[in-house]
Structures are given as C-alpha cells and as structure tokens.
Amino acid sequence: MKSLIQFIEKVVEGFGGLARLCVLALVLLVATNVIFRYLFSIGPVSLQELEWHLISPIALIGLAYSMKHRADVRVDIFYDKFSIRKQGVIDLLTAVATIAIGLYITWLSIKYVGQSYRLQEGSPDPGGLPMRYLLKAFIPIGFGLLVFQGIADTLTAYLKITETKNEAIKIAEREAI
Amino acid sequence: QSKDSFNVRMTNAYPPGSPFYVQGPGSPMDFCKKVEEMSGGRLNIQHFAAGELLPALEGFNAVSSGTIEMNAANAYFWAGKIPAAQFFTTVPFGLNTQGMNAWLYHGGGMELWHEIYEPHGLIAFPMGNTGVQMTGWFRKPVESVADLKGLKMRIPGLAGKVYSELGVTVRLLPGGEIFPALERGVIDAAEFVGPYQDRRLGLHKAAKYYYTTGWHEPTNVTELLINKDVWESLPKDLQMIVKMAAQASVTESLSWSEAVNSEALTDLVQNEGVIAQPLPQDIVTSLKEATFDTLSTMAAADPQTKKVYESFMAFKEKHASWAALSEKPFLNL
Amino acid sequence: MIGNEWIILGMIGGFLSMMIIGIPVAISLAVSGFVAGYIGFGPMLFNLMPARLYGVVTNYTLLAIPLFVFMGVMLEKSRVAEDMLETIGKAMGGVNGGMGLAIILVGVLMGASTGIVGATVVTVGLLTLPVLMRRGYHPSVACGTICASGTLGQIIPPSLVLILLSDIVGESVGTLFAAAFIPGLVLAVIYILYLLILGIIKPDLVPAIPKEERALTSRSQLIKDLLRNVCPPLLLVVAVLGSIVGGVAAPTEAASMGALGAILLAVSMNRLNWTLLQEALHGTLTISAMVFFILLCAQPFSLAFRGLGGEQVVHGFFEMLPGGELGAIIFLMVLLFILGFFLEWIEISYIALPMFLPIFSSYGTDMVWLAILVAMNLQMSFLTPPFGWALFFLKGVVPPGISIKDIYLGALPFVALQLCALLLLFNFPSIATWLPKAIGW
Ligand code: NA
Ligand code: NA
User: Fold this and answer.
1) Neighbours of chain C (3+ CB pairs under 8 A)
2) Euclidean distance between CA atoms B64 and B81, whole angstroms
3) Among A104, B77, B282, C296, whose CB has the most other CB atoms within 10 angstroms?
4) Could you describe the subunit structure of this protein (chain A) (predicted)?
5) Is residue C350 over pLDDT 80?
6) Span C208-221, average pLDDT
7) A128 chain-B contacts, CB cut-off 8 A
C-alpha cells in the first residue's frame, strides 16, 4: 500500500516539475514581452497569448501538487484539537470527496475538450496560437491528477486510522496483561 | 403552463449593464422582452450577461452542445473555430451597413451562414448592428504610413493583422486595461467601438486624436445564435416571432446607435477638446492593399472561407457600383 | 419538493459545517455546490462547469497571481524581505507598530498595480508574517493588518471591482479610478492611525524592537542598513508601479517587473543558486495553485447559487426596500454587507446591483459616489469572517502555529475600521467626487 502511495506521489511530483517550469517560463516571458515591446516595439500576438496560456498548467496541474504538499487551506479551529484518529477520519472524508469531485469534473470536461478538438479550435486572432484544445485538456489532466492524489490520500488516511487503532489495541492488550 | 410554452436561456458575450450589447433599445435583453410580449408569454427567454452563467466567449460551444439554447455575440468571435464566421460580422473595407443587410437578407449571405453553422447544430440570425465604427484613439497625430511603424495599438482580430503588415505593434488587452494603458502611453492607440461607447470607457481622457472612419469595421452585426434542435422544436409562429423580433432589433439598435453617436461625437469635439478627423489618404490606401492581401490569403487557406469570400466580394462589387451612383453623390451634396 | 430557498440555506450551512470540521475550504465549496445543485436542478447546468473553469484559468488579469507570488517567494527565500523589515523596525525606533505601518505601505504600493486580492495578501503574508511573529507581534493583529492591507488593492486603482462597476453604473473607468484614489488612501491612513493608537494603548500587541537591541546598531550602521536592505526591495515595488506610471507596462503585466527584479536582486546579492530557484518555483506553484484551487472550486458553488434562483431570493429582499434615496442607500449597503458574508464579490455585484441602479438614477443619486460606496462595501466582504477570501488566502501561507481563529479575530477590527471609512465617505461624498472633477476625468 505504501509503495502505491509513493508511486502516485512520484507521478504528481513529475507533473509538478512541468508546472514549475511553466512558472519560470511565465516570469521570463511576461518580462521579456514588456521589455521588447518598450525598447524595440516588438510584440508578436502568439507570445502575448502564450502569457495567459501558461496560467492553465500552473493552476490545474498545481491542484494535485498543492494537495500533495498539504498547501490546501483548511479551517483548523477544531481539527488541530482532534485525536490523530479523528483527523484521519476527516482526511479520509476529504480524500474521498476529492476523488468524487475530480472524477466528476474530469468526466464533464472530456466532452468539452473533445468538442474543441472536433472544431480544431484555435485563436480567433490572426497570428494567435492554434490547438486551443491542448490548453483545454489541462482541465481533465489537472482534475485527473487530483483523483490520483486523492487515491494516495485515501490510503494515507486509512493507514493513519488503522495504525492508531492497532496502537490503541496494543496499549489495551498491554494494560490487560 | 401549456405544452405550447417554452422556457429557454440566452447567454451573452458582453458584461452586465453594457448599453447596446446587453440592455437598451434593440439590445439582446430588449429582444427577449419583445419575444415574450409578442408570444403572449409562450416563449420566455431568460437572459444572462457574460460571467453570470458562462464566461464571455464560451457561448458557441455551449449552444452547439445544447447546454444553453441561445447566445448573443458577434460571429467573428468564433473565427478560431470557423474562419468564415468573420464575414458575418464585418470585413475590413467590406460592405457598409446597408450593403451588409442587403447581402445577408437578399444576397445569399444568410443562406451561407446557415449552411456553415448547420454541421455544428446551430442556426443564426442578425440581431443588431452598431453601424460604422471609428478607426480609434491616437495619442499623437498620424500623418503618413511611416508614423504607423512601431506604433503600439490595442486592436484585436483581422484588423490587427492588417495593421501589423504596416509595422504596427499589435497589443491584445482586455477592455478594462485599455484606459490605464492608453492613459500612461503603454499603448499609443486603441480601437474600441464608436463615440458613445468610447466615451463611456473614458478613452478621450487618455488620447485626443480620434480618427475616422471604421475601415476595419464598416458595419458590425450582432449575432443571435440558436441551437438547431431547439429552433426546430419551436412551432412556426414562434419561429416567426423570433425572426421578426431579431429583425426589429437590427433596425432599432442601428437607429439608436446613429442617434447617440452623433450626440456623443458633438459633445467630445465641443466639450472635451477631441480632434476628430479622417485618416490620411495614403494610410488608407496602404491599409486597403494589406487588407486584400490578408483576405485572399485567408480565403486560399480554407475552402469554406473561399466560398463565403467569393459571395461577399461579388455582392460587394455589384453593390458598390450602385452605391457610387446613389449614396455617394448624395453624401457629397 | 423542498423550496429552493431551503436548499440554498442548506448549501451555505453544509459548506460551513464541512469547513468547520476541517475539510479543506476548496473541497467544502465544491461538494456543497455540487450536492445542492444536484438536489435542486439536477446535473444539466453542471455541463457549464468546464467552460467556467476554463474562464478562470485563462483570465488574463489573474496572471498577477503567479507573478507577484514569485516575487514574494523569491524575496522571502533570499532573506531580502527579512532584512528589510528588521531594518525598518529598527529605523522606526521606539514607535510601536512601526513594522505594521510598513506593511500597509507595501499593500498600498502593490494594490496600485493589481486588483487581485489573492496575489497581494499571499505575497505580503509570505514576506512579513514570519518576521512579525519573531518580533513578538500578536498573531491576530499581524494577520488582520496583512489581510486589510492586501485588500486595499480592490479599491486603489486599477481595480477589477471598479472596472465592473463602471459598466454597471455607466460611468467611465477613468472617472471611477480617479474617484477611488482618495478613498483608498483615506482607508490606508485609517489603518495606520489604528496601528499607531494600538501601539500607544497596547504596546505589547505591536512591540517596537527592544531598546537594547537597537542600541547595538549605531546610527551610521542603521543608515547603511537602510540603504542596503530597504532600498532595493522598495525599489522593486516602485519599479512595478513605475513601469505603469512610466508607460512601460500595462497594470497586469507590470507584476512581471517585480518578479524579474526579485531575480536580479538575488543575483546582485550573490544569493541566487539552483536550490534557491527550485525552492522559489516550488513555493510559487503551491501558493498560486492554492489560490486557484479556491477560485476554481467556488465555481460549482456560485453556479448552484444561481441555478437555485439565489438571484430571485435576493430580489425578494428588494420588496422590503424603504422609500426615499437615503433609505435605499442604507438598505443597499446593509444588503451588500450581508451578502458579503457568503458570496463572492462578482456574484454580489451581478445579482444585487443591476436591480438597484435604476432606482438610484430616478433619485438622481451621484453614481460615482454610489459606485465607490459599493466598491468599499465589496472590499469589506473580503475581510468578513467566516467566508472572507483574504482570510483563506492568508491561511494558506501562515507559519504553523497560527490558526484561522487568529486570522478571524484579527480581521474584525479592520472590518470595523472599514465601516468607519464607509460612514466617512457616506457623510462626505466629496472624498470620492472631488478628484475626478478637479482633474477633469
Ligand atoms: Na488595485
Ligand atoms: Na465575505
């Protein structure tokens, strides 16, 4: 079970590498566009479009990545005071909900991307970027990865619950002796 | 509710509150109201501005897939999916409003429009028209083609391509950033709509030279997009009501635009120190050449575009010879 | 058949309960939205979901999020921010609350280049919170200050709220930008006064750097430190703003000047290396994605709210509208404030405003003034617990040990201050209307 978790997290981390690269590309691209336009009046439409095209991988691949690195926002007023086991139960609920949301949105968006592919959708601006369906494909990819991470989280939460339970049984057994 | 009554939804590519594009005489919301009253409440269209149900430019896919029944926008927004869609809104140096209406209603334009949208499960009608637009706002006067070189201009679409052939640096910016960018000189020029809409954006506070005419948008057709299955499920009388309400909106929005633009232009020139003048002739000539190169390249790349292009251009030629003897001498009186 | 009003209440209640027991905010939003929508109108409307998600991840103005966050992470990892705040703290001498003032100023400067609250709150929080904590600031006060200063960008132009309002009230973007300028600064001044007064009556909450420690740094050393530690990062923020004012960059893309500047700064201080860059990219990705996670998962929630006829429910309140201009304005303000507890500002303005505005045009109300009142009210909605988004965004970057409770408590006084500013503007409309007239916008 632990090796499955590790495998999943490796995949999420791998995609995260791509998204990290997009962050760097975004910073350099926007800055370069600004400077080249100001100094040399150069500003191809395609590179301007690429700016906001890069938000998509960062935001969507980033979903699973931020889940993996526990960068999600939660209200911890009660959570912090719960026992490890209770926290495990909340984590389990979260993970199952994550899988459900991820699956639903992935399923909804596959049709959406397919439609864009059939239309061979590109930019309405001449000189803009083609293949907008690739951009749209980050929605199912991102939420699909989220499902994947959700599976890992489910297993982790399950281990958290059972291990604390076993621990409790062991303690109880010891006390019984 | 009787079996004979229909509730449908219309999304819009423009944000809530926009006059002409959303509300006011001849606008999409006005159209919905007209249809409801004409049908005695049998066809009820609930209107949603951009961002309320859908982001601005997602109407085509939503209506095509049947999630939404109707959408209000401009056909050229779909140029990334159907290159020929450009011709059903406006074409640089193309037909003016009278000519466009003539081509659409009686020159085979509408038939082509329906033919092209058919495979997407769509049908479309004209539902409004801004009339001729303006070239745009410039921070400095432009006197020759040389002045265009390196000029940074906010201009989307086909016209952007034409300008870039003449050395203009095309800048894509969302509506809300046009004003701050023009005001600070990040861009030297910006195109939006016409005097009334431009004044609302405050562009005259950022640039004083207002050039005319809208060579790039000599007319501008608002598109009513309807899901084909929904359309066919409507009884004949309701279909006719939709068609007639849309046609009424074309007349009403156009006449409204003509009225408010003349008021706004006078105000801009007399009270705001705006200098309104035509583009110098040599610039117009160069733009025209670049446009026809661009259009013919576009037509050569896609058989569907070629078909529409040829119909449009053949009609334009006929119409131009008539207009040269009718409208033109009259305007020169 | 349950009435839709009850499903809406159930949705809000469901969201609140899931959130309270510790299910992540984004997941709670999506689950409650999907479930309530499914009960109320079935799956059909959710076919719009992909288009709405696509709208979020292709929104040009949201570029400011990764760009500003990168700048913040870079300054934090290269310890530039830490040095800066420490030095400012020392330079402030015995003034309690001194570092807090610096935060408000950074909020004003960053707010002048973007209107994206997530970008500002997260960046300022990242940069300043660890230092403030180490320096003995009360967690609540520190968090409240950061959230409040981060939301200033909503009212200080350029601002998305104002752009949207300009369409709704029919005034030009330029007029509203000019009109919001002074109210934005007034708000900042009110925050600063609050911190200074707090420093006098409760110095323990916002302590100055101890005298003994300040004594270790000589006057000339302090001046040297100011030049070395404070000028460069401040220059960075000024560069962002300067590139807008100087006509180099449009508002959103200007954030890239800050990001690039942060790299150059790290290079010039010999702190840039592969590890630092990797860490900065990792930090930017997780934090930006955290913000986007909430923005994306809010889509099912607001779609469900609309699909369930939340609009009609709000319009129902409309029948309680008292007569007279004054009554109507107060009613509008209270309604916006209440909606602000659980709705996103865009949704509020789309649903509530278009129906009110015809009434006010018939009263002849000054629309510019009204728009700024509305903008300030909407800005407040970012700070109101339990659903203030600024509070969530900050939660995503706080060091361990600070709970959402600290953030909630910290936000409350600032909500009260906002109310004061709102009253001030209400009584003195010229705070908003003077500037646009004076410069002819
Ligand atoms: Na701002
Ligand atoms: Na709120």
Assistant:
1) A, B
2) 12
3) C296
4) The complex comprises the extracytoplasmic solute receptor protein and the two transmembrane proteins.
5) no
6) 75
7) 80
CA distance C247 to A26: 21
Please report, as a single letter, which amino acid is at residue B46. Answer: Q
Closest CA in chain A for residue B161: A126
**Cis ω before B294 (30° cut-off from 0):** no
ipTM above 0.95, yes or no: no
Say yes or no: C257 contacts chain A, CB-CB below 8 A: yes
DSSP three-state, residue B136? strand
The answer to whether the bond into C158 is cis (omega within 30° of 0) is yes
pLDDT higher than threshold 60 for residue B2? no
Question: Three-state SS for B23?
Answer: strand
Integer-rounded Cα Rg, in Å, for chain C is 22
Strands (E), chain A: none
Q: Is the peptide bond before C233 cis (omega within 30 degrees of 0)?
A: no
Question: If we measure between CA atoms, which residue out of B129, B128, B155, B152 comes closest to residue B142?
Answer: B152
Mean pLDDT of chain C: 84
Q: DSSP letters of B220-282? A: -EEEEEEEHHHHHHS-HHHHHHHHHHHHHHHHHHHHHHHHHHHHHHHHHHHHS--EEEEPPHH
Q: Is the pLDDT assigned to residue C1 strictly greater than 50? A: no
| Residue recorded with tokens 């927004």 | B77
- Pairwise CA distance, residues C176 & C164, whole Å: 10
Interchain proximity A124–B164, CB inside 8 Å: no
The ranges assigned to domains in chain A are 2-176
Which of B57, B58, B60, B61 should be substituted to probe chain A, the one whose Cβ sees the most A Cβ atoms within 10 Å? Answer: B61
Out of C45, C51, C170, closest to residue B55 by CB: C51
Edge-to-edge order in the sheet of strand B43-48: B43-48, B6-12, B70-73, B221-227, B122-129
- Listed residue (C75, C196, C186) closest to C145, CA to CA: C196
For B128-182, what is each residue's pLDDT tens digit? Answer: 999 999 999 999 999 999 999 989 999 888 888 899 889 898 888 777 778 888 8
Which of C75, C25, C43 is CA-nearest to residue C297? C25
Residue length of chain B: 333
- Strand partners of residue A104: none
The per-residue pLDDT for B3 is 61
Q: What is the pLDDT of residues C178-201, one digit of tens each?
A: 888 899 999 999 999 998 898 888
Task: Using alpha carbons, list the distances in angstroms from residue B56 to A137, B6, B170.
Answer: 20, 25, 22
Cβ pairs A/B, distance under 8 A: 61
pLDDT value at position C305? 86
Dihedral of alpha carbons B296, B300, B301, B305, sign: positive
Do A125 and B160 lie within an 8 Å CB cutoff? Answer: yes
Query: Most B CBs within 10 Å: which of A35, A41, A51, as the mutation test of the B interface?
Result: A41
Can you give the residue ranges of every domain in chain C? 52-438
User: Which ligand has the shortest distance to the CA of C337?
Assistant: 2
Please give the structure tokens belonging to residue A177.
């002796």
